[in-house]
Design a protein that fits this description.
11 strands; about 40% helix; single chain; alpha/beta; Rossmann fold; nine-stranded mixed β-sheet; 20 helices; about 575 residues; about 10% strand
Length: about 575
């Protein structure tokens, strides 16, 4: 996915600047895991007291290089584990191993989700272990203490890492998969089930893990699927892939379709019209050629420039926002705002609504900005070097490929030139084979997708699930029409129920059709005139089903942070 060029440049400059940290000495190899109370973090206040009391952590030693002549016996790295033991300690049924996204996200942030409904239920008889991946957080974090945006800086960074005794080629997805195998071998209870739960990049890792160790896990949960065929260039168009689905949903609603019914130079389809307004908002598009916002346009003037550039983020998450006493899903609000900006008529009502929407959104944007700028300990920050390392070794092709994909992107970024500048001096390793999952993995698979996911589009999941089925995999796919990226962490009830049924009873217990009725609520739309006020085109407000998140502000922040992290690490 791409995003506004100036914001992407700022994100690269800020996030690709790592702060210095001291690497802890690797723990000695041991077959026994020494669990102990977890060290305090800035996120502990988000956890109920019961979870804080029961949560335990361990440093786990793994070989630096499994392919070394001595099998990795002479050099080790330390990775961190956090486990919430099953409440029923006498007869636990299984273990769930959570793999963070990114690549490069620190695992500490995932502890806050241990209080979510899905884990609250399954933790009764399942251990839940969050596995921090090598090179991130407190797990031998890759950190050279400087920005890496060109070949000169990259060379200097590589020299610092060499002085630390670290080889970038050791920090691969394959080695992270081998780490997971060792973690499960050392921690899984005898006779219990093993469920590997991958989130975003964690699904890419989970896929590779079961290819290398097809007989260890009994089940996979893949939420926000990163397909095995992913390339960097594929990521550039994911926002547009998701936007196409949103356009289809708009076309299926009389009020929304009418809002975009007027002709225009941008093309005949609703999604083409949506894309053109977004290009005008962000001043990007086909090689920066999109026209600027209309001059002296009362509707554009009603929305401050800063907020106009942030509007595409409304598409990145699932949240409720109240505008003029009406509860809007952020994606429906985006459609109405873009439609009014495009039309800008209706005797001043369009500009009036946009001013009201700006007032309603301003606190969320301010809160998001404040939380993003708040200082965080290094161990809680994403690891940009891991992201660059995996992208260049496993997903990168050429600058020409990335540029070609970016040429027609609605929302563009500046990452491709930075990666291309670094690539000539960056030591890469062989990418894992790009092959689909087959019946060689004898376990069960649950794939969760948000139909409005702008980072890992549902269309990518559909293709991959079809290939799994063709390969004889016992897989079930669940799509949530309102879902954004990583539906289970958004605590969507359907995702929670699907995971619980799948883990306890298998694919046959999951009804893939039960979620499809939970679609966007267009009844709040007020941007049309001359329509009946009843039916699916009605303008009477009704309550939007609660997203299950802990408030609109938090959901907005999650979306904003996810997008910026995604710009840097390609897939979040």
């Amino acid at each position: 996915m791409g995003y506004h060029s100036s914001l992407a440049t700022a994100a690269v400059a800020a996030v690709l600047t790592a702060s210095c940290s001291v690497l802890a000495a690797p723990t000695p190899p041991s077959s026994a895991v020494q669990w102990q109370p977890c060290a305090a973090t800035s996120l502990d206040s988000t956890l109920p007291g019961d979870i804080q009391t029961r949560l335990e952590c361990a440093a786990f030693s793994v070989p630096s290089n499994y392919a070394a002549a001595d099998g990795g016996a002479s050099s080790h790295l330390s990775i961190q584990l956090a486990r919430l033991p099953a409440k029923n300690t006498t007869t636990p049924k299984g273990g769930i191993y959570v793999l963070p996204g990114g690549p490069g996200e620190a695992a500490i942030g995932y502890r806050s989700y241990l209080a979510s409904p899905v884990f609250a239920s399954l933790n009764g008889d399942h251990d839940v272990t969050i596995v921090e991946l090598r090179g991130t957080g407190n797990s031998t974090r890759l950190d050279c203490g400087m920005a890496v945006q060109n070949a000169t800086q990259a060379s200097a960074c590589l020299g610092i890492l060499k002085q630390q005794g670290l080889a970038l080629t050791d920090f691969s997805t394959d080695n992270a998969a081998r780490d997971l195998n060792q973690v499960i071998t050392a921690t899984a209870r005898a006779g219990s089930t093993v469920t590997v739960y991958g989130l975003s990049y964690g699904t890419w890792l989970a896929h590779r893990y079961v290819q290398l160790f097809p007989g260890q896990a009994t089940a996979l949960v893949l939420d926000g699927l990163v397909p095995y065929w992913t390339r960097f260039a594929d990521s550039v168009s994911t926002y547009d892939d998701g936007l196409a689905v949103l356009g289809e949903m708009c076309d299926g609603n009389a009020a929304c379709k009418t809002l975009y019914a007027t002709a225009g130079s941008e093309g005949g389809t609703t999604v083409q019209k949506i894309r053109e307004v977004l290009r005008n908002l962000t001043m990007t598009g086909t090689q920066g050629s999109s026209p600027p916002p209309p001059a002296n346009n009362a509707c554009y003037d009603a929305v401050p420039a800063e907020l106009r550039r942030m509007l595409p983020l409304l598409f990145t998450t699932l949240a409720n926002v109240t505008i003029d006493s009406k509860p809007y899903d952020t994606r429906v609000l985006l459609l109405e705002m873009l439609g009014r900006l495009r039309r800008c008529s209706d005797a001043g009502q369009d500009a009036s609504f946009l001013r009201a929407a700006t007032t309603g959104l301003a606190p969320l944007a301010q809160s998001a900005g404040a939380q993003m700028q708040a200082p965080k300990p290094v161990a809680e920050q994403p690891s940009p070097l891991i992201a660059v390392n995996i992208v260049l070794s496993e997903w990168w092709t050429t600058l020409a490929d990335a540029t070609a994909a970016q040429h027609n992107a609605t929302i563009a970024n500046d990452l491709a030139p930075v990666l291309a500048a670094v690539a000539p001096v960056w030591p890469t390793y062989p990418a894992p084979p790009r092959t689909p999952l087959t019946s060689r993995f004898g376990g069960r698979v649950l794939v969760l997708s948000g139909q409005l996911d702008p980072q890992t589009p549902v269309t990518h999941a559909r293709r991959t699930v079809g290939e799994m089925k063709a390969g004889g995999v016992d897989v079930v796919s669940v799509e949530m029409p309102r879902g954004a990226h990583i539906t289970s962490l958004m605590q969507m009830p359907c995702a929670v129920g699907s995971i619980e049924g799948f883990v306890r009873k298998g694919t046959g217990a999951v009804d893939a059709g039960t979620c499809l009725g939970d679609g966007l609520d267009f009844s709040v739309l007020t941007a049309t005139t001359g329509l009946n006020t009843t039916g699916d085109g009605g303008v009477n407000a009704k309550s939007v089903p609660n997203s299950g998140t802990s408030g609109a502000v938090r959901a907005w922040v999650v979306g904003l942070v996810t997008v910026v992290a995604f710009m840097v690490s390609v897939v979040a």
